[in-house]
Every structure is written in structure tokens, then in C-alpha cells.
Amino acid sequence: MQTLSDILLVSYPALTELALYLDYYKYDHVEVFEFPLLQKASWPNLRKLTLALEVSLYPPPYGDDPLAPPQIGEKIQIMANFLARHIKLECLKFGGYDSLFPNAGCLTTQNVPRLRSLSVTSPPTLPLTLPSILPVKVGSQIHHLGFTITEECLVFLDNLPNLRSCQVSLKSKLLERFLQRVPSVEKLHLTHDDMDWSENTPERRTNIVSFFEPTFFPEADIRV
């Protein structure tokens, strides 16, 4: 029987947008995708890719099973090779915790020369930082950013001169400094866990003209 991965790889060579989700209440694990997907995928016209939080990019662990998941070095190579085969990508949204790794060098100007939108979810216990995954040259291309903002990220925001929209999570103590770093942002969606909106906010917020909710790509919105 063909898996969903097989169907996507063989039957849809002209994909330009792809979003994958998994109903966690319906499946105990994600073997439905059997991820040779990243290893074998070749969609030369792919421009937007969303892999939601519930989707595993690599096979789940099976203890001593010979099909146990690859080590981090192998995962990095799988991701780098996937991006190198899809240089038309303009928008990447990763909801998984092991999509990109610190200092892995996957996002290069050679691999993602057209990247304009980047959203990455990382676990609170081990947050990624922008400097660890995004080279300065690639950062200068970015128009939209979805990320958890930490102290390490603030200064690096100066390397995103074309940033126009943000969907970020941050703590209240970082809010004012964050807003100072993104004066050209036009659309902003903030998520916080300790922010006190009763305090006076900086006048520079007048540069923010609208708030927006995250969107996906219904043209290839696949839920199983």
C-alpha cells in the first residue's frame, strides 16, 4: 500500500505550496508520513512549505530497531540537501522541534536564495537563537519572521533591514528593546507569557499599522 509520502513524491511533481499537519488524537505516532519525504522530495517549483508542530521530519524512535532515527549530523545533512534541491523556496514554516539545528549551516544563500519568510518553533527548554540558524546575508532577505525572541536575538535583528512583519513570542522585559530594533515593521502579532499591557508603551508603536493572525496555505493544506 502506498504511503502518503509515496503519493506526494510521485503524483505531485508540480507542487508550489505544501502544508502538512497531523491529527494527534487520531494517530499514536507519525508513521503515516514515513519520512523518506525530505530525503527524496524533488519539487522544483516549490515556493512555500509548512510543516506543522505535529509533523515529524524524521522517523520516530523505536529503541533498538534498525530503523531508529538518524543522528543529528544525518538530520542536518538531510535538511541541507532538501533545501539545496528547492532553491525557489520563498516561505518556510517549521513547527517541529528538530527542523533546524544551531550552527548547522542549512540556511545559506546558495540553498535559500529567494527566502523571504521564515517561521520556526523551538521548545522553551532549548530555544533556538537567530544568530545560530540565520546567516547575516540570508537575514537581509527576510520580510517576515516568526520566532521566539530572546536576549541573543535582539542585536541580530539589526541584520534584518527589510523586515516588514513579525509573529513573535517574547517576555515583557524585552518588549521595548524589541520594538526599538524593528522600526519598519508594519504588521505585528505578539505572544507573551508575562507582558503587562497596563504599562505605558513606547510611542514608536505608532509605526505598527496592523495586527494579524498566522495564516497557512490552503492550496495544499493536507490534514490526516
Question: Uncertain spans, ≥5 residues at pLDDT below 50?
Answer: 202-224
- What is the mean predicted local confidence, pLDDT? 76
Computed Rg: 18 Å
Q: Biggest sheet, strands in spatial order?
A: 7-6-5-4-3-2-1-8
Q: Which architecture would the CATH scheme give at its second level?
A: Alpha-Beta Horseshoe
Question: Which series of helices and strands comes N to C?
Answer: HEHEHEEHHEHEHEE
- Overall body shape: globular
Largest sheet: 8 strands, parallel
> What is the CATH fold-level name?
Leucine-rich repeat, LRR (right-handed beta-alpha superhelix)
How helix-rich are the residues, as a percent range? 10-25%
Can you tell me the number of structural domains? Answer: 1
Separation of the first and last Cα atoms: 16 Å
Could you explain the architecture of this structure?
This protein is α/β, with parallel strands linked by helices and 224 residues long. The chain has a single domain, classed as Leucine-rich repeat, LRR (right-handed beta-alpha superhelix), CATH 3.80.10. It is 22% helix and 16% strand. It has helices at residues 4-11, 37-40, 72-84, 130-133, 136-139, 151-156, 172-181, and strands at residues 17-21, 48-51, 91-94, 117-120, 144-148, 165-169, 187-191, 221-223. Strands 7-6-5-4-3-2-1-8 form an 8-stranded parallel sheet, with no helix packed on it. Helix 3 (72-84) links the parallel strand 2 (48-51) and strand 3 (91-94). It is globular and about 55 Å long.
